[in-house]
Amino acid sequence: MIAIPKNAREEIRVSVDDYRGIPLANIRVWYLEGDEYRPGKQGIALRRELVPQLIDALRAVQP
């Protein structure tokens, strides 16, 4: 899992999860509630084989 600070109360977490035997890349915003981070609704889960296409898309919008 990789955590990228978004602001003082949120972070973006990138992880690899398994859903019914399908490996997924999960990119989700987690928010701080009290002393603990909790997953928010904002995010995306996609099949791992689509990750290279997502990286290409992100590079295309990079300044």
Radius of gyration: 13 Å
The strand line-up of the biggest sheet is 1-2-3-4
Care to count the β-strands? 4
Low-confidence stretches: none
Following the backbone from N to C, one meets helices and strands in this order, namely: EEEEH
The largest sheet, given as strand count, sense and whether it forms a barrel, is:
4 strands, antiparallel
Number of helices: 1
Instruction: Tell me, rounded to a whole number, the average pLDDT.
Output: 95
Q: Helical residue percent?
A: 10-25%
The portion of residues forming beta strands comes to: over 45%
**Coarse structural class:** alpha+beta
- Rounded to the nearest angstrom, the distance between the terminal CA atoms is 26 Å
Which overall shape is indicated by the principal axes computed on the Cα atoms? flat
Structure summarized in a few sentences:
This protein is of the alpha+beta class.
Descriptive notes:
By secondary structure, the protein is an alpha+beta fold. The protein contains 1 helix and 4 strands. It has one helix at residues 51-61; strands spanning 2-5, 10-19, 22-33, 36-47. The chain has a 4-stranded antiparallel sheet, with no helix packed on it. A hairpin with a 2-residue loop joins strand 3 and strand 4 (36-47). The protein is flat. The two termini are 26 Å apart. The mean pLDDT is 95.
Secondary structure: elements and pairs:
Elements: E1 2-5, E2 10-19, E3 22-33, E4 36-47, H1 51-61
Antiparallel strand pairs: 1-2, 2-3, 3-4
List descriptors.
1 helix, 4-stranded antiparallel β-sheet, alpha+beta
